[in-house]
Structures are given as structure tokens and as C-alpha cells.
Amino acid sequence: MNNNRDRTNTNISCGQDGHDLARSMESTDWMEQVRNLNAEHALSTGKVRTFRLDVFGCQMNERDAETIAGMLTNMGYEQVSHDEPADIIVFVTCCVRENAEEKIYGHIGALSHECEKHGSIIVASGCMMQQPHVAEKIKKSYRNVKIVFGTHNIHDFPMLLHRYLTKRKRVFEVWEKEGRVIEDMPIKRSHRHKAWVNIVYGCNNFCTYCIVPYVRGRERSRRREDILEEIRALASDGCREITLLGQNVNSYGNDLGKKDLFARLLYDIETVDGIDRVRFMTSHPKDLSDSLIKAMKECSKVCEHLHLPFQAGSNRVLERMNRKYTREHYLDLVERIRDAVPDIALTTDIIVGFPGENEEDFEDTLDLVRRVRFDAAYTFIYSPRKGTPAEKWEQTESPETISKRFQRLLEIQTDISTQLAKKYEGRTVEVLVDGPSKSNPEMQSGRTRTGRLVNFKGDTDLTGQMADVNIIRAGAFWLEGKEGKRRG
Ligand code: SAH
Ligand code: SF4
Ligand code: F3S
Asked: Over the stretch 264-296, which tens digit does the pLDDT of each residue have?
């Protein structure tokens, strides 16, 4: 029986089977204690302590970073930008591929000068820390990392920080296994007009290449009421768009003993006033149900965009990846989704160079890409991950062959993305404006319902507003608009 939701048990323990509500209260107490220490520090030095965040990886990490920022703000720290020194530098790490890990080691190493000069400390958290060999390496070789915690004990950060501040000894605490879902943690959201909303944590799928189930634990769904309460609160705070998060959103609720809860959740969210757009990621092709397709068609707030990773186009490779669907099933799904929502934008993830993938298998991937015509594809070269089944499988192809295949795929996909983008030229699209463009601050930028990036000129700052934008030029990864007019 799933007992995740027992809110009456008041047994508090330091181990992994305490209680969610008690845990969040415990965190609140520790936050107060750290806040007091910081108030004393501010009184004696006249300085407020600061923090900055370095976030890697997927949306789950972005969302976790908002909780970490929320806790630090609650404890009296002030967030500073990337080019300013900070008392605490928090890394929220990712280990999905080796290059992600290497990058993070590089960034941490490069901070030794700042740590010495300003007395900054580094906090390392996130998926990478869930691997014992990583925590060991950090302990041994990265002396400026003073606090380490993992994905399952984020709520312990205030307690660990208090321990460090009072004892000045390095604190390493990573839970091997997931605990219960903990609600009511503080949060400092990155945006007001759009928000990430977790619906299910962890993954049960164990694709043979993937480390996520090992570092994020088994699936745990949040209660429907907790999710809806959060979304209602977001809407009354001015949020217009939400993105529901899960490694496999389609299995939302399976651990609560009910089927097809995800589709029902979309209908529930449809009734929340103030929310105009609903997105979700990621969908697993093996679990995408007819009722979900129906909900996508019927719920006007659900955006016309679906991220549906297919990973490989060859059935032989899909089977070895343990993906539990065939290319035929995938193509059939695409057809049914396009029948239901004709203008839907489809995006996907693809891995090139999985062990044993030969030229013929790779051609199957290219064939699927050409048939489906995705709006965008996130393409990755396979990276062996410690502890996964595929780590031990023999690689039959040379790095050069794999790299050439990767380039071929990229060229074909960029071509398709460009052709599909051209269809936007001359059209007026609805854009939710995020703010000044990162590449050109004179332009404003935002996203269409289909998830396309739009840059446009506007006389007034439209951040957080819906705007109608007339598209004049289109490239594979951006659309350029003439001017943005506030909608309504
Ligand atoms: N839960 C999501 C995404 C997981 S990670 C899903 O199932 O789709 C994001 C993407 O990283 C995956 O879709 C996959 O394409 C890629 N990925 C995961 N492990 C990888 C590995 N070992 N090497 C290369 N790419 C990988
Ligand atoms: Fe990894 Fe597969 Fe789970 Fe996605 S569904 S997180 S690729 S194991
Ligand atoms: Fe990376 Fe963890 Fe996400 S490994 S992709 S940050 S779940």
C-alpha cells in the first residue's frame, strides 16, 4: 500500500522514513535558526550575506533551484548575479551525460580564486551528488565545497547549513533513497508570468542508457489537491503559463493506485481562472493514452506542443534501450495526435551511437525524422553512465562514425525545422513575453503556444503580457516579429 500521504503520523526521525509535514516544519525551524545567525552577522558587520546559483540539467533542476533560492532567501541571504562575488555559491548538478559532469567539475574548480579572495563557500547539490563516487571525488579534490546534499534531501539544506555555520566543518549528507513528497517548502520563482509545477518525481522506466532513475528514485506523484492549490495560488499571483513537470507525466497517479489521472488533471487545470497556457513534459510514448490525446484536444489552455522523445528509429535499438514501444507504435501515435490537434508542434529527443547501433539502425532514425517532421529535436551522442546496464555493452562503431552520423542528423533536422518555421512568416501569433532578448536587449522575446522563440521590437515593455506579433522572418530556432501589440 502506498502510504506517502499519511499526514497524521508525527514521528520525526533523522532517517528516511519520517513524515512529510513534520519535515517541512523541521526545515522551517532550521531556517529560523540560520536567519538568526545571519541577523547577528548583519548587525555586527553591517553586511547582508549573499548567494548565487549555478543550475545545470533539466527543468527538474530549475525547479529544485527555485526551492533552494526560496530557502536561502527565507534564511536572510540576498541573491546576486553571476558576475558578483557571493558568500554561498550553490551548484545544482546534472549527470545525464559525461560532458555535463565534466563541465561542472570545471566550473567548481575555477572558483578557487573567488573562494580564497572572498571567503565564499560552495554548496553542491542535485543529481550528480547522488552518485557515491562523485561525492567521494568532491570530498577529496574540491576543498572549497563545504556542503553536499542530493536530490532526496533538499529540505535538509537549512539544517546542513546551520551545522556548517556553527561548526565550520564540511557537511556531506546524501540520501540513498527517495523519501516522501514534501509540500510547503519556500520558493523563489524565476518568473512571475510562468512557472514550473512538479506533478510526479522520479522514474520507474529504467531505459538502459539512463541514470535518472538511479539519481531521482522511484515515481512519487503529488496529490491532485496540492497541485491544484499551487496552480490557483500561482494564478492569483499573476502567473499565466504553467509547465507540469515529471520524467514521465503520463504515469502521473499510477503510484496513487489510479489510472489516467494525468488526463483528468488537465481538465481540472482547465477550470483555473487566470491561467492561459498549460504545458507539460516529458511524455513517454509507451504511456501516452487516448484519453490524454482527447484532453489535449478538448482543453483550450493546453498548448499545441508535445515533446515526445523517440530516442531511436530502429526497433532493434528501441528494444535494447528498454523503451517498450516500436517505431510503428510511435508513428501511429503521431498520426492520432495530429488528427486530434492538427497544428500541433512536435519536438523530440534522439540518441545517436547507442551500443550496437549500426548504419541500418541509424538510417531508421533518419527515416523517422523525415517522416514525422519534428519542429525541433534535441540530439545527443550516447554517453555511457556508471551503473546503467548499457554501460557494459560493447560499442561497435568508432567515435568518428558516430560523430558523422550525428552531423547528418543535425543537418536534416535543421533543414526540417527551418522549413516548418517558414510557415510562420506573414502570420500573426500570440506570444507570452518573457522580457528583453538575451542576444539583443533592444528586442523583446517570448514564446508562441507552439513553443517557438519569437524576438520582436516593441515601444513598451510587455514582459509577462500576451502580445500579438506579426512574423516577418523565420530561422530554424527563432522567429522575428515586426512589432508586438499587447493583446486585449
Ligand atoms: N524523462 C525524459 C528525459 C530524460 S533525460 C524522457 O524520458 O524523455 C533527457 C534526454 O537525455 C533523454 O530523452 C535522452 O535523449 C538523453 N539521454 C539520457 N541518457 C543519456 C545518455 N546516457 N547518453 C546520451 N543521451 C542521454
Ligand atoms: Fe531516463 Fe527513460 Fe526515465 Fe526518461 S523514461 S528519465 S529516459 S529512464
Ligand atoms: Fe540531469 Fe538530473 Fe535532469 S541527471 S537531466 S538534472 S533529472
From this structure: 999 999 999 999 999 999 999 999 999 999 999
pTM, two decimals, is 0.94
Out of 173, 199, 221, a domain closes at 173
Compute the distance between CA of residue 488 and CA of residue 486 in angstroms, rounded to an integer.
7
What span, in angstroms and rounded, lies between the C-alpha atoms of 67 and 55?
12
Nearest to 213 by CA among 68, 389, 15: 389
- Ligand 1 and 379: CB distance under 6 A: no
Q: Report the 10 Å Cβ neighbour count for 315.
A: 16
Hey, what amino acid is at 65? A
Enter the DSSP assignment of 239: -
How many domains are there within the chain? 4
Is residue 248 situated within a structural domain?
yes
Q: Which domain holds residue 262?
A: 191-303
Residues 359, 364, 368: CA angle, nearest 5 degrees: 145
- Name the closest-CA residue to atom 4, ligand 2: 247
- Estimate the crossing angle of helix 359-372 against helix 399-422, to 10 degrees: 10
Q: 273 phi and psi, to 5 degrees?
A: -65, 140
How far apart are the CA of 54 and the centre of ligand 1, in A? 21
Q: Supply the CATH number for residue 287's domain.
A: 3.30.750.210
Q: Residue 62 belongs to a domain with what CATH number?
A: 3.40.50.12160
Q: What is the mean pLDDT of the chain?
A: 93
Write the residue with the smallest CA distance to atom 1 of ligand 1.
247
Which CATH number do you get for residue 394? Answer: 3.30.750.200
